[in-house]
Specification:
The chain contains three helices and nine strands; from the N terminus they run βαββββαββαββ. By secondary structure, it is α+β, with helices and mostly antiparallel strands.
């Protein structure tokens, strides 16, 4: 089964749940551009990073980011600390600009994962496509 989550829905959800303003736009079927607003000396800029899905294994999503330079690394460190306060160790920074999302460490995600298995993630001009299979229990 394919589930489409539109970029604007995802942006709104992230803003409501974390207070973090992000923008998403299509880059390729495995990569999305993520914008993060920052103020530098009172001037609002946006750090744009390419976020690529490396793979999905079980309840883990492996992502790789590029772009954004040193400001991105600083912003990512701050974001990881803020997320850790809200969702614990569900998101971990790995080597080589990689991030792992451990869905089984997010209680609300486990409600869905008890019934569905995530097998893939891709992107299109409208949003994020989640490929899931219904678990027959």
């Amino acid at each position: 089964m394919d589930i489409l989550v539109e970029y604007r829905e995802l942006e709104k959800l992230i803003l409501e749940k974390s207070g973090t303003e992000l923008t998403f736009s299509y880059s390729s079927t495995d990569t999305v551009k993520v914008g993060y607003p920052v103020k530098v000396m009172g001037i609002r800029n946006e750090i744009i990073v390419d976020l690529r899905v490396v793979g999905v294994e079980g309840n883990n999503i492996m992502l790789e980011y590029s772009g954004g330079g040193s400001l991105m690394n600083m912003a990512l460190g701050m974001a990881m600390n803020m997320m850790r306060e809200k969702i614990g160790e569900a998101v971990t920074a790995e080597q080589d600009n990689r991030i792992s999302v451990h869905l089984d460490r997010i209680p609300k995600a486990m409600i869905v994962l008890d019934k569905f298995e995530l097998s893939g993630i891709s992107f299109n001009g409208s949003g994020v496509n989640l490929k899931v299979f219904v678990k027959l229990v």
